[in-house]
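Priority: medium. Attachment 1 of 2:
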């Protein structure tokens, strides 16, 4: 039986815009078939300054990304590109959760392999939609915020579960419903339909983060709400923005107390 950690690392290393999602989906298929398992003898995880990426998009600071409205075809293409970029990053985030954190229950690896599979499918759907607009992935600039948070949490699985799925990726739960409404108003039901799929499946991804965050807290004897508040203050200053999709976040494993903490921690002026 092949080593799951090594297979996840191979996905991380792949920089091809077609090869990475295909490799993630092949990893998931092999895992479901019982051909991959976490190997205790696997070499320790290496630091990854940057996973494999294509030459473009150029990565810039978020404030340097131009604001584009949905009113033009170019603006809508830029939005689709931004979502595709998030999904491309999310493949790496899920695979890094598999590669980096060792000695965890089998269900942990099953969850994040499934997430990697979903994210690869999401990216492929968004890239195909982008191609229909006469563009491809890499045609617009993007930022590296998701992977930067992964770097900050390489040594702490508890912090990774709290901050990547439950803060950064959960942002999609808040903003996607409004985007779907705008796209349908413009008659772009094809893009809206894809976002409906992504939104539904991202609830389960954030729920996996909630589940394993609480597992880490229980194992360490840590009170989850207090630690979440501390992590928000330490890592997420300026990242949180209101309003929050309370219904979706509750479905994704947030407690009412945690949602109260989010509201308090959110950057002022973003309600």
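Attachment 2 of 2:
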């Amino acid at each position: 039986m092949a080593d799951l950690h090594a297979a996840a690392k191979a996905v991380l290393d792949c920089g091809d815009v077609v090869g990475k999602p295909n490799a993630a989906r092949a990893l998931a298929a092999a895992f479901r078939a019982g051909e991959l398992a976490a190997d205790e003898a696997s070499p320790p995880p290496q630091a990854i300054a940057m996973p494999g990426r294509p030459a473009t998009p150029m990565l810039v600071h978020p404030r340097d990304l131009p604001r584009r409205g949905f009113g033009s075809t170019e603006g809508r293409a830029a939005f689709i590109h931004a979502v595709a970029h998030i999904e491309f990053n999310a493949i790496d985030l899920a695979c890094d959760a598999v590669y980096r954190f060792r000695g965890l229950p089998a269900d942990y690896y099953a969850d994040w392999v499934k997430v990697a599979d979903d994210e690869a499918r999401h990216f492929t759907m968004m890239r195909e939609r982008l191609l229909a607009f006469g563009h491809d992935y890499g045609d617009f600039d993007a930022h590296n915020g998701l992977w930067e948070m992964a770097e900050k949490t390489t040594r702490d699985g508890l912090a990774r579960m709290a901050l990547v799925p439950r803060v950064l990726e959960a942002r999609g739960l808040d903003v996607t419903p409004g985007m779907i409404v705008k796209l349908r108003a413009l008659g772009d039901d094809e893009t809206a339909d894809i976002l409906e799929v992504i939104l539904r499946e991202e609830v389960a991804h954030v729920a996996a983060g909630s589940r394993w965050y609480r597992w880490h807290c229980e194992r360490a004897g840590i009170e989850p709400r207090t630690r979440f508040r501390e992590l928000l203050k330490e890592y997420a200053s300026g990242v949180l923005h209101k309003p929050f999709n309370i219904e979706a976040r509750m479905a994704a494993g947030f407690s009412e107390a945690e949602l109260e903490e989010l509201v308090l921690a959110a950057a002022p002026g973003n309600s």
